[in-house]
Please model this.
Amino acid sequence: MSRGESKAKRRERLVRQAQGLPKSAGAYLFLDGGGRVIYVGKSKSLRSRVRSYFGNPADLAPKVQRTVDSTHEIDFIVTPSEMEALLLEYNLIKEHRPRYNVVYRDDKKYPYIQVTLPETFPRVFPTRKMESDGSRFFGPYTDVGAMRRTLQTLRTVFPLPTCKLNLVPGMSERGCLDYFLGRCVGPCRGDVDPKEYRTIVNDVLRFLDGKKDDVVITLERDMVRAAREMRYEDAAKLRDRLLSLKKTVAKQHVTLKGQSDVDAVGFVRLGRQAIGVLLSVRDGRVIGRDRIEIGCTPAERESEILRGLFLGFYHLHDRVPREILVRTEPGDAPLLREWLGDKVGRQVALRIPRRGVGVRLLEMAEHNAQVALARPETGLEARSRGPKTAVAAVAKALGLAKPPRRIEGFDISTIQGTDTYASMVVFEEGAPAKAEYRTFRIREAPRRDDPRAIEEAVRRRARRIRTAGGRPDLMLIDGGPTQLGAASRALASEALEDLPVVSLAKREELIFFPGRAEPLRLPPDADALKLLQRVRDEAHRFALRAHRRRRGGRVASSVLDEVPGIGPSRRRVLIHRFGSVEAIRKATLSEIAEVPGIGRELALSLWTHLGGAEES
Model:
């Protein structure tokens, strides 16, 4: 791009670039002025897809329009098919971590369990390298602790070596402690035939595939056969392995009737972060859980997040069942089905369950994702968190560019179906700033019309922000999407549509965003939710306080109106001076007489009248 190129000239140049792209399948890259990749996409026709970004700006979603406005160059890579374009897109996103994509944050190398099948005496050990040497790999394990527990179970049940010796037939080593403790069959001593050893390895493979019941049946059959053939020592060894395995199988108490082999993919989102969980069910038992974290924007569609999770989970995963359960269909679903089918050589179905076991399994996956999302807020970190931590948590949850130092909360209160007031409370650095609290008497909105009242109050506040400053970092509205829509219209009317605003609905404590259909549900113990609840509840409390003060003022007016000579002007002066009828009643005759416009004679009449009045 030439120095000083205008936005219009740049757009013309990019349109020409788009028109010159091939009609082939491939991946395209949008670059900013510094040459950084800010977006990666794929298409079966590069020219058609990229040209669609440069149509009528009014037809583009806000995120897409921001992407186009930030683009200075277009690059592309042609692929033989859309399937390869999909996988190329995944790799490019992992490589460049573009600003406007669903980004895979956990790009470290996860560990696998490797079974070295090409060896005469295969071994089982953890690895972070996947090599095409004929070995079987199980994983990836996003939870290293889970992988270690699996290895420990294998070493308890299956007597395979853990050493790094080069094991070949005919060895005559002395043997290690594991051998003498019965934890290894001793291939280094020549005590086991390769064929017998391979039988144990096959049981390990079935165990890792989740077919534990099959392994139990096989061991029981081999134990009975060994006893019949009077090989009592072999039968005793098989019995011990069988008992260990049965204990392991008994620990797996989550069973799902009606489900054989199936995966469930669930996720929760928190601002610019989404946590996905894949639960694997084999033979009706939940045998494993994988977890992945991806970056996203608050406006990202659920289908695109799910598409990203599928690529992240199954890119190196070769254990794909015939059916995968999802809450909603992922983006590019037909292409994902084809890709997964090609990996395993059969059809793979994506199903949205409506009832029964499938729904329970998805709920379990989503609950695990919520737990994973809340884990950083536990333990020592939870004990040391304070208001600033909560403010930072709000920024993360809502996807704000910076922590909201100043939060303004709004609520509505109607007095006995007549007067309507709006309250505004202010929190700075996570703490109430009570000197900044305000109330608005609603003049234009109809009675009992909370959305219109919110719109009027927020519009008046926005007008004040434009003229006098004091712009908040976040506005919080008490209510659901209707109240939020009213607040958004008010901000837009004063050219403040870029001011962050959300609403928090009672009962289910859902957070709503402008222009986004799905609300955000935070874990109940999340710092961000607790701070937002506190702001919302304080706005409600302050609205009730204004309600009671106004109601008390009405009662005071009714009592003072009974005193001859006290009209509206003198009544206002008295209430302003003393604050309430009770304070006037407790005042001395001289103090009342000193009020401008009252005098001693009227003060005596008022004091005498209030002396017989009932307290109200």
About this structure: The longest strand covers residues 285-295.
